[in-house]
Amino acid sequence: MVEELTFVRKWESWDTSKQSNMISEGRRAPDLGMPTQAGNNLLYNLTRKAKSEKELLGMIDKLSKKLGGKYKDAKDELITRAAVDAFNTRGNKGEQGTADRNVYVQLKGASDFAGGGTIKLDDKSKVKVSKKEAETIVRVMDRLKPADRLKAQKGMQKDKKTFMRFLKVLGR
Question: Considering only CA atoms, which of 126, 133, 113, 112 is closest in space to residue 157?
């Protein structure tokens, strides 16, 4: 009986350590052109971790040399292009993905908190806004006609420079 428990414990400890070293074959990542799903998962994770296109290309180069060249296909032009495209379309790049990423909704949320909040913009930068600033911007934007408000929102969520320009104009 004691021997069986010891064997089970050894098996459990071996199993958990083996799992941490194994590469997931699950169908989590979209097909980026790698021969295996594990390769697609690794490449997709790199597109999520990278902060710039140049960094992504360096990470892909390292991946192609990883595990004795197992993922050498990552250097293929089509696969690299697919990874760069996935990088460029990730997160809140371009169009706002959800309503919570809308600048107007974020400003309304920041006006609710005592310390203000941070606003995420399309270029992946963040701007800290105080409660007072957020309240005045929301008040001014509420007075605008819907078409003008939409123009202001699109301009504000573009990048940090235009956001600060609108902050000066709307905040007065």
Answer: 126
